[in-house]
Design a protein that fits this description.
Blueprint: E1 13-14, E2 17-18, E3 36-41, H1 45-49, H2 56-72, E4 77-82, H3 84-87, H4 92-97, E5 104-106, H5 115-123, E6 128-133, H6 136-148, E7 153-157, H7 166-178, E8 182-184, H8 186-194, H9 203-213, H10 216-229
Parallel strand pairs: 3-4, 3-6, 4-5, 6-7, 7-8
Antiparallel strand pairs: 1-2
């Protein structure tokens, strides 16, 4: 399996950002691309069919936006499916972001019990594990809680995940928070990775992601570019 990643740095400081371990407050608690590893779990047709905590197309949009942001920032991304021969292949929008990567197809309900997934995460050398998947109460909560107990600082992207009901999703988030997991949304993840607009290398990439998946922000950006490109008739 190929994983989209680059070698982690060994130093305690990366581009001026303190490398943290389980910091819950302060600058070090925020995400950086250099510390992050992303796991996208079971965004498959069977799971989408019983997704009732959110509007399904919103979750799919957000998951694809998150995956594209990870690629912009060169964050290692691991794709997983469960019994894909019956539950369906990974949604095409996600697979298209990493066309070269074959998702890890497993039988374990709990992704973190599959050694291939754990080994892929550990191989990155990163401790801030970001998870999104279907369903929140099962295939997200189980690995998040276990990984949090094994020394990883776990973040769950709640709006790129979803459950069989609003209650199921909400109770899973509460349970994970009690276990030390941090809930976050996909735009917050991308914003923390960017952190500074002076980081010009990634600006075009995140602007494209926002235009495609940022909802009203994308519409507003398209409008702004239209206005900038349209003559007003008052030019000197």
């Amino acid at each position: 399996m190929s994983v989209h990643c680059r070698r982690p740095a060994d130093a305690k400081f990366l581009k001026g950002n303190l490398v943290s371990t389980e910091n819950k407050a302060g600058l070090g608690a925020l995400l950086t691309p250099e510390e992050s590893v992303l796991a996208l779990i079971d965004h498959q047709p069977f799971q989408v069919a019983n997704l009732h905590s959110h509007e399904p197309t919103m979750v799919i949009n957000n998951a694809v936006g998150l995956a594209k942001a990870a690629k912009v920032f060169d964050v290692p991304t691991i794709l997983t499916t469960v019994l894909e021969e019956r539950g369906g292949l990974l949604l095409q929008g996600l697979q298209d972001v990493f066309p070269e990567q074959k998702p890890i197809n497993r039988t374990f309900v709990n992704t973190w019990q599959d050694e291939r997934v754990v080994d892929a995460v550990k191989a990155t050398g990163r401790k801030k594990l970001i998870i999104a998947g279907l369903w929140t109460e099962v295939c997200v909560a189980m690995p998040a809680i276990q990984a949090a107990g094994e020394g990883f600082e776990v973040f769950v992207v709640t709006d790129a995940s979803g459950g069989a009901s609003k209650e199921a999703h909400d109770m899973a988030v509460r349970r994970m928070v009690q276990a030390g997991v941090t809930p976050i949304t996909w735009l917050a993840v991308m914003s923390e990775w960017q952190r500074d607009w002076a980081r010009e290398k990634t600006v075009p990439g995140i602007v494209e992601v926002l235009a495609q998946h940022g909802g009203a922000s994308g519409v507003a950006y398209a409008w702004e570019t239209q206005l900038l490109a349209t003559p007003t008739g008052n030019e000197v």
